[in-house]
Amino acid sequence: MAYKMENDIGKVLLSEEQIADIVKRIGEQISEDYSDSEHLVLLCVLKGSAPFFGDLVKHISVPCEFEFMRVSSYGSGSVSSGELKIILDMNRDDIAECDVVIVEDIIDSGNTLFKLKKYIQDKGAKSVKICTLLDKPDRRAEHIKDILETDYTGAIIPDEFVVGYGLDYNEKYRNFPYVGILKREVYEK
Ligand code: IMP
Ligand code: MG
């Protein structure tokens, strides 16, 4: 029988319907919070947040611009640490006037987001907030726990490896319309 990627999912954590509700709620909240902003910039962190970003922007009813960055936070071991590596940057000469909302797929240790937020603050953005679809607070690195604030969170999830709706394992499963827990046997074999 042909291999079916769906068989690698142990449990659906967020269905399409649940995701749609979350995205609508966050989009409406951002629209309300930035109703007075003169220069809202929604920053999509590639690749993982692409589906979330694409759906979220449809619920944002205030003027905004799009930016895209691709970063990786690498170091030793499986937990991200070390330097923030910028693979694709945003280049704007008006950053001092921009209210930036970073749109991310998931916060795990928090290293990537913490450094990315600082990077954009250091560029001189007027304000920087964080919007994440998923958060795994149990995984947060000790040194980041008290200093990384997330402003918009879709769902708090347990310490499990999840895929779908942009999230990948070895670049696969991003196209799934839901978020599911990847069976351990898939990555432990
Ligand atoms: P952090 O720097 O440890 O917060 O790493 C965040 C990045 O790790 C995310 O942007 C994802 O690319 C990846 N990541 C963390 N947890 C998961 C997961 O459960 N599934 C897929 N990717 C994940
Ligand atoms: Mg990512």
Would you report the number of β strands? 9
With strands numbered from the N-terminus, the spatial order across the biggest sheet is: 4-3-2-5-6-7
Order of SSEs: EHEHEEEHEEEEH
Annotation field: number of helices: 4
Structural class: alpha/beta
Bound molecules: inosinic acid, magnesium ion
Q: What average pLDDT do the residues reach? A: 94
| Poorly predicted regions | none
Distance between the termini: 21 Å
Helix content: 10-25%
Radius of gyration: 17 Å
- Percent of sequence in beta strands: 25-35%
Instruction: Write down the overall geometry.
Output: globular
Major beta-sheet overview: 6 strands, mixed
How does this model look, in words?
- The chain is built from four helices and nine strands.
- The radius of gyration is 17 Å and the shape is globular.
- Strands 4-3-2-5-6-7 form a six-stranded mixed sheet.
- It has helices at residues 16-33, 50-56, 111-123, 184-188, and strands at residues 9-14, 40-46, 64-73, 84-88, 99-107, 127-135, 152-156, 162-163, 179-182.
- The longest helix has 18 residues, at 16-33.
- The chain is of the alpha/beta class.
- Magnesium ion binds next to loops.
